[in-house]
From TrEMBL:
Record's protein name: Heterokaryon incompatibility domain-containing protein
Residue ranges occupied by any Heterokaryon incompatibility domain in the UniProt entry: 68-220
Organism listed in the record: Rhizodiscina lignyota
Family annotation (Pfam families): HET (PF06985), Het-6_barrel (PF26639)
Superkingdom of the organism of origin: Eukaryota
Chain intervals for the UniProt region annotation (Disordered): 1-27
InterPro entries cross-referenced by the UniProt entry: HET, HetReg/Transcr_Mod
Length: 630
């Protein structure tokens, strides 16, 4: 085959037997992709540290399983660019990418790389969508993923790398001694003292790098066979870092939560979700801890950065937990992409858990032009809740199958029961907000009763109210307190807050939470939060506060007309209705608009989460209804 006079791209393609229409596009960098499995690889030509970056693009096919490494990086400021040469033609790329190419370039051998910004024609909307659909395969078959953090001007990474090496060695020694992950003990005070010399500040700074906050990187590293972090002149093995995070996540919480404030939970959660069998922690019965659903991973994308709102969905379409396909289409608007995903999820899976991801920071607006229906989660808006009420332990609709219809992508028609109306909502609980923000009992002791509205104020208000009006639970103080505590923690105890509890014989973890609540209300403080094994651990007030602060953040305690206690969205109002939608695991707050039309305000905890609503319906005490959500 004659290749004289053809561009380097065309020559490489023709030598592989792939037809390229050269026509009048000699000076263009991007030739069209001839096959569905075609993609472009970059040959990074060798050079010394100061040499200009010279590259060649060529075509490959996924089915050939070519050998290459893939770059994962933060695009950075698009206005700060450097010039490189591709096939002899100049191309402007971001400074961050130029640094990454220069950092991984070899002085004597060429490197074959995949890099999205260069190898995808970003101006071609159709190609962009097609290549995004293939990116999971591209990163999965790469020999290694090269993670670029950029230059380390303060040389902080060396301390972090030394800490990672020491902790990795410590974990391996523990595994040799105890045999398996689940057998490892929780970290002791002696262990914490022995590890105190490590540069925890540098490790914390490493976890705060911008790369960890980018939406696309979790697919890139989650599907990787092997990965290495390049930070300044230092290299850190990704697998070693994840081993350290796994140990800190499951056995070293006293270090990360209370002492050094390391921010890595999201990192470890997302990484594990891409390969649960090989990365997660299993108990002695082989059960996997922390298993997630795809929509929970998608919810985390709200905390991540993306220059294109559509990529908060598209960046996760190759996730192994997504069991149906969605084609990326950059001709569609972000609202349409989000609505299509929710409608597809509901129609194909008949699973309403996705509605629990809904949050409204202001009054929800139904669809007008590019606006969203009230029932569609906004993944382009940062979450206000740290923890959803939804979890596997609830079954509010008692296993009833969903009865629903999505109409024109704007209306969701569902069947369920209307339980009650919101009578009143209480103000924000300032002491819980302070504890969430500062984790400091001394600060709460100083301000409690002097500022705002506190848990103690709420408790005494509720006791006064139940004296004048019966409630469904009982008017006994002990029963009222129990229902209140259940509601404030959302009937969910966070494992790391009770892992060190020393329980009295016959006591449950919830009994310990109630004891902790009593200690807090009585003003019995003792700031021993930094100890992993303090005395009388079952009555530490922070055990209650830690659980309630996570659940009550940006939520409002409310009481219904019939006296039920609830915890719902901050924007709930008097007259909103509490309902259980068939197929949903948790109740929802809706706002009536008339003619059986409602705005969906969001999920709620009502102290009847295990099918009680369906029992009331069968007894004729509440009615089955149709709700049109707009």
């Amino acid at each position: 085959m004659e290749t004289a006079g053809a561009s380097p791209v065309a020559k490489a393609a023709m030598l592989r037997g792939e037809p390229i229409n050269e026509s009048s596009r000699e000076s263009e960098i991007y030739d069209s992709l001839p096959h569905e499995g075609s993609f472009r690889l970059l040959r990074l030509l060798h050079g010394s540290e100061e040499d200009p970056i010279q590259c060649e693009l060529f075509l490959e096919r996924l089915g050939r399983h070519p050998r290459y490494e893939a770059i994962s990086y933060v695009w950075g400021d698009p206005n700060v660019c450097e010039k490189i040469h591709i096939n002899g033609h100049p191309l402007q790329i971001t400074k961050n990418l130029e640094w990454a190419l220069r950092r991984v370039r070899d002085s004597s051998e060429n490197k074959i790389l995949w890099c999205d910004a260069i190898r995808i024609d970003q101006s071609n909307v159709k190609e962009r969508g097609h290549q995004v659909a293939n990116m999971g395969k591209i990163y999965k078959i790469a020999q290694r993923v090269l993670i670029s953090f950029g230059d380390d001007s303060e040389d902080t990474v060396r301390g972090a790398a030394e800490a990672i090496d020491s902790l990795h060695q410590h974990v391996n020694e523990l595994l040799e001694r105890y045999g398996e992950w689940f057998a490892l003990p929780h970290i002791s005070d002696a262990d914490m003292a022995a590890l105190d010399h490590l540069n925890w500040k540098a490790l914390s700074q490493l976890t705060l790098q911008e790369w960890f906050r980018r939406a696309w990187v979790w697919q890139e590293v989650g599907l990787a066979r092997q990965a290495t972090i390049f930070y300044g002149n230092t290299e850190v093995d990704w697998g070693s870092l994840m081993t350290v995070f796994k140990w800190l996540f499951h056995r070293g919480r006293a270090l990360t939560t209370y002492k050094y404030q390391l921010s890595f939970d999201r990192t470890f959660d997302l990484w594990v979700s891409y390969d649960l069998d090989g990365r997660g922690l299993r108990d002695s019965d082989g059960r996997l801890w922390g298993s997630r659903k795809f929509i929970q991973c998608l919810q985390i994308s709200r905390e991540l950065k993306s220059s294109d709102a559509r990529d908060r969905v598209y960046a996760f379409l190759n996730h192994p937990l997504l069991d149906f396909s969605i084609d990326p289409d950059y001709a569609r608007t972000a609202p349409t992409v989000y609505i299509d995903l929710v409608a597809a999820w509901i129609n194909q899976k008949f699973d309403l858990d996705i509605l629990s991801l809904l949050e409204h920071s202001t009054r929800p607006e139904y669809l007008e032009e590019d606006r969203f229906p009230s029932w569609c989660p906004r993944w382009d808006v940062a979450p206000s809740y740290k923890v959803q009420i939804l979890h596997a332990g609830f079954e509010a609709s008692d296993g009833r199958h969903p009865e629903l219809t999505v109409v024109n992508g704007t209306q969701l028609i569902v069947r369920g029961v209307l339980l009650d109306h919101v009578q009143t909502g209480r103000p924000q609980l300032d002491d819980l907000t302070n504890f969430f923000t500062y984790g400091d009992m001394d600060r709460i002791e100083t301000t409690k009763g002097k500022e705002g509205y506190s848990v103690s104020d709420l408790y005494h208000d509720v006791l006064k109210q139940v004296q004048s009006k019966p409630i469904p639970y009982s008017n006994e103080v002990a029963d009222v307190k129990r229902a209140l505590v259940f509601t404030l923690i959302g009937d969910w105890i966070f494992r790391h807050t009770v892992s060190s509890l020393v329980l009295e014989p016959g006591d449950t973890e919830f009994d310990a939470i109630c004891d902790s609540f009593d200690a807090y209300i009585a003003g019995s403080y003792r700031n021993d939060i930094n100890s992993s094994n303090p005395e009388s651990t079952s009555v530490r007030p922070e055990v209650f506060l830690g659980n309630a602060a996570l659940k009550c953040l940006n939520r409002r305690f409310f009481i219904t007309d019939s006296g039920y206690f609830g915890l719902g969205p901050w924007i709930l109002e008097e007259g909103d209705v509490c309902c259980v939608i068939f197929g949903a695991k948790v109740p929802f707050i809706l706002r009536p608009l008339g003619d059986s039309k409602y705005l969906m305000i969001g999920e709620c905890y009502l102290h009847m989460m295990h099918g009680e609503a369906i029992t009331l319906m069968r007894e004729g005490k509440v009615n089955e209804e149709t709700f049109t959500l707009i």
